[in-house]
Amino acid sequence: MSIKSLYASTKATFHELTEPNDFKTSTWMAFGATLLFLSQSCFSSRIINLIPILYLVGCVIKMGIDTLHLHTRSYTNMRRGWWTATLPNADASSDNKRGSDEGGVVAFLLGARINHPLGKLTPGAKEIGDIFQEMWTEAETNRVKWGYLGRTATLVDYSDSERTPTFWLSYWKDLKGLQAFSENTIHRLGVKNYIANKYPYMGIMHETFYAPKGCWETIYANFPPWGFGQAQVVEEGADGTIKLENTLIPNRKHSTMFRRMGRENYDGA
Questions:
Q1: CB atoms near residue 125 (< 10 Å)
Q2: How far apart are CA 253 and CA 77, in angstroms?
Q3: Rounded Cα distance, 69 and 78, in Å
Q4: CA-CA distance, 265 to 269, in Å (whole number)?
Q5: Do the Cβ atoms of 103 and 260 come closer than 8 Å?
Q6: Nearest 5°: phi and psi at 20?
Q7: CA 154, CA 205: separation in Å to the nearest integer?
Q8: DSSP assignment of 177-233, as one string?
Q9: pLDDT higher than 80, residue 264
Q10: CB-based contacts of 26: which residues, under 8 Å, 6+ apart?
Q11: Given 37, 91, 233, 259, which residue has the most CB atoms within 10 angstroms?
């Protein structure tokens, strides 16, 4: 195994073992104080004092450079202007108008919480984390069959005082595709193990929302592609090739929430 492949394998296995949100600020400060105490036996006080000063100077220099080169070398993932997301196969002249079964969107929110002081070191946490990752990989593989459109990166709820829950918001073309996702081999294995109490310290939740055509819209202003704005739809080309189409398009001037839904105004339906 090459060094590059070994690094990739190690990163894939352990990159989420410890993240900033895994510990409280006071805990991280305690880690820092302990490291400072231990370093005193290895380095002189001058070196120890110089390290945080150099770090802060480096941060200030980086901030200055990023400010001078704003949007050219920093914050480059932002989409300037106003954008909206729509399904590429929708009628371009009518945007998201109703009257068809096509064009609806399913939003599926999946959440997990480790109910144990050890966090990701809790027995079973690593295994169920791998199952989550394999489920999303399988969704990517079956985009055409399941109508999978994409998902957000891991979302974190910092309002929980005991343990930080994590969430994934995914988007689907229809409920049938989402149901097929729930019946795949990996998901069924996870459910079977969970019901058998193999992961007694893991809390899991999900919420499902379906918005028919003409009942959803999006807007993004000076914002990086996110959520449904970074979703991708599988389209078949004239030559039979399969390609991914982005959902994000420039927003029409003077558009409103109802116009982006395909409605001129609110009709109560």
A1: 19
A2: 23
A3: 14
A4: 11
A5: no
A6: -55, -35
A7: 15
A8: HHHHHHTSHHHHHHHHHHHTTSSTTEEEEEEEEEE-TTS----EEEE---GGGG-EE
A9: no
A10: none
A11: 233
pTM: 0.80
The DSSP bridge partners found for residue 232 are 246
Q: Distance from CA of residue 114 to its chain's centroid? A: 19
Which of 87, 138, 68 minimizes the C-alpha distance to 245? 87
Report the C-alpha gap between 64 and 70 in whole angstroms: 10
**pLDDT band per the 50, 70, 90 thresholds, residue 93:** very low
Whether the predicted pLDDT of 240 surpasses 80: no
Instruction: Kindly give the pairing relationship between strand 148-151 and strand 220-223.
Output: unpaired
The answer to whether 243 and 235 are in contact (CB under 8 A) is yes
Q: How far apart are CA 130 and CA 126, in angstroms?
A: 6
Measured CA distances, 76 to 32, 135, 224, 225, 232 (Å):
33, 31, 9, 11, 21
Residue with the bigger pLDDT between 25 and 193: it is 193
Question: Mean pLDDT over all residues of the chain?
Answer: 84
- Report whether 104 contacts 214 (CB < 8 A): no
Rounded to the nearest 10 degrees, how much is the dihedral formed by the CA atoms of 117, 159, 223, 171? 70
**Residues in the chain, total:** 269
d(CA 169, CA 215): 19
Tell how strand 105-114 and strand 202-211 pair up: antiparallel
CB 201 within 8 A of CB 116: yes
Identify how many contiguous H helices and E strands the chain contains and give both numbers: 8, 10
Do 198 and 85 meet the contact criterion of CB atoms below 8 Å apart? Answer: no
